[in-house]
Every structure is written in structure tokens, then in C-alpha cells.
Amino acid sequence: MHITDEDSFIEEAARVFGAGMPPMAGRIWAYLAICDPPEQTAAMLAERLQASRGSVSGMARLLEQLGLIRRRTRAGDRREYFDIPPDALHRLMEVAIVRLRQNREVAEAGLALIADRPPESQARLRDIRDLYGFFEREWPAILARMHETELADTQTDRAARRIGTRKEVTA
What we know:
Layout: H1 6-17, H2 23-34, E1 40-41, H3 42-49, H4 53-65, E2 70-74, E3 77-83, H5 88-113, H6 119-170
Antiparallel strand pairs: 1-3, 2-3
Helix pairs in contact: 1-2, 2-4, 3-4, 5-6
């Protein structure tokens, strides 16, 4: 991987993070992950990504529907601002179990369709079913551990801030 500047990061991140999405949706999301300020208007996104406002608008709508970005307004400003909400990836990970189940179910349907074929003909589809089934079963525990870790990190951060505040007060 050769990332040397923002443009190469945006392109690589769009390719990796945006798997299954149109390239422009991936570029918008990748740029929103690194831009400063973190909120960008459609015009700002279009200019930076060298895209049409229509393309930015359509892809922003897609990303918003997926919960990966949010659209907000400011009092006295008619423009809409886009950013990545703090819980975007959590929501994405929580709905991933639906995709895991769907993939397993399709593989099971395929196996039922070719049930009369020799076992070696079914092996690839059986592997797919088993892999998705494994992750479908394990995903809730992974999410629970992720939430526990974040909760512990948040509590540690709060404790560190309290200790830091006490040191400042006593100094």
C-alpha cells in the first residue's frame, strides 16, 4: 500500500472501506474521515473531490441511509453540512449480522438446490455456508466485547481527567 498524500488516502480508503459502494460514496466517506473541519458542505465535498454536486448529493443520500454520515443544518445558514457521526461504525457493525445471516441462507438454499450432486460438488458452497454461519454465531459476542472495551476505555479516560483536574487544582 502506497499512501503519500490525502488524494492517495482517499482513493485507497474508498476502495477498501467502500467495498460494495459506488466509488464516489467511498471517496466522500474517506474524505469525511480526514477533513478539517470535520463538517463539510456538498459544495466543499464536490470541490475537494472534483465531483459534480449531483453526484455528491446522490452519494451523500446513500451514505446517510446507511447511517455512515449525517446531514445537519446550522441556524441562519441554508447550507447542509455532512459529517461522520460518532456511532456510525457501531451501527454498521450491528447490522452486519443481517448480511451474515442472508449470505448463510443463500448458501443453504444453494446446497438444497444441488443436494443430489456428489459431496465434492457441494464442498465450495458448504464452506461458504459454514464460514458465514460461524461469523453469524460469533458476531454478537464480538460486538459485546467491543462495547465492553469502549466502556472500560471511557471510564479510564474519565478517571484520568479527574486525576488531571485534581493535580491542576492542588498545584
